[in-house]
Amino acid sequence: MQDGPASDIEMCGQRLCGDSAGALYWPAERILVVADLHLEKGSSFARRGVLLPPYDTAATLSNLAAVVARHDPRIVISLGDSFHDGEGAQRLSPADRETLSGLQRGRDWIWISGNHDPDPAVDIGGVFSDCVSIGPFVFRHEPGGGSDENEIAGHLHPMARVHVRGRTMSRKCFASDGRRMVMPAFGAYTGGLNVRDRAFAAIFEALDFTAHMLGPTRLYAISATHCLPD
Q1: How many CA atoms lie within 13 A of 197 on its CB side?
Q2: How many Å apart are CA 40 and CA 55, to the nearest integer?
Q3: According to the model, what pLDDT value does residue 145 have?
Q4: CB neighbours of 147 closer than 8 A, spacing ≥ 6?
Q5: Are 141 and 201 in contact (CB under 8 A)?
Q6: What's CA 89's distance to the chain center, in Å?
């Protein structure tokens, strides 16, 4: 595995910072982007009789608070599936709702609609949109695949699997070819889809893209061709 530039990912002539927590920061515009928070996934499963520890929302918001404190963005964009279902916002605890309100204070907050949460939530602050264009980028939930737009999307929860020093490891990652990016899922209870899956080949049209794997304090860049299939 080769070390990539320390947290830097260049797209469309712009320097983006891939935070090791799984968020993306655009310093020139002071924009922070996260994808697939899946807040209230635990309570959603509980309603269907599948019991998970009910701490995912608090953990996700705590991680997000640390990233917001680190970068102090003027705008936060959440790229869809922010809630695990359409009623997730209504199930936020008072403490989690207050945490979210505090994160939004003093900055703009944009919620992009996702397949899990296609409709605007009520009383959670921010503005809602299907997608948003800023500078050279289009921010949306599902990757366009074959689109001519320079897009930053989520939805697929990319994960890379590699063999390092005699052992195999899997890590969440940013997948990018310098024009398109699919971001890792930020939520505490979110899994991942191997970047060798055909869904990524459909987006990038080949394996000519880089998996920027999340490490404890930085990213590690590895060609998708060197990533292992499942």
Answers
A1: 12
A2: 9
A3: 62
A4: none
A5: no
A6: 19
Phi, psi at 123, each rounded to 5°: 60, 40
Please name the amino acid found at residue 196. Answer: R
Q: Which CATH architecture has domain 8-226?
A: 4-Layer Sandwich (3.60)
- pLDDT for the residue 47: 72
The confidence score (pLDDT) of residue 200 equals 94
pLDDT score of 3:
37
- Across the 230 residues of the chain, what is the mean pLDDT of every consecutive 10-residue run? 58 95 96 97 74 84 96 97 93 96 98 94 95 96 81 97 90 96 95 95 89 93 94
Tokens 């997948």 belong to residue = 175
Contact 192, 184 (CB under 8 A): yes
What are the distances in angstroms from CA 99 to CA 25, 60, 120? 21, 11, 19
pLDDT number for residue 34:
98
Relative to beta strand 14-18, strand 24-26 is: antiparallel
Which pLDDT score is estimated for 51?
Answer: 66
How far is it, in rounded angstroms, from Cα 117 to Cα 26?
25
User: What are the residue boundaries of the structural domains of the chain, listed by start?
Assistant: 8-226
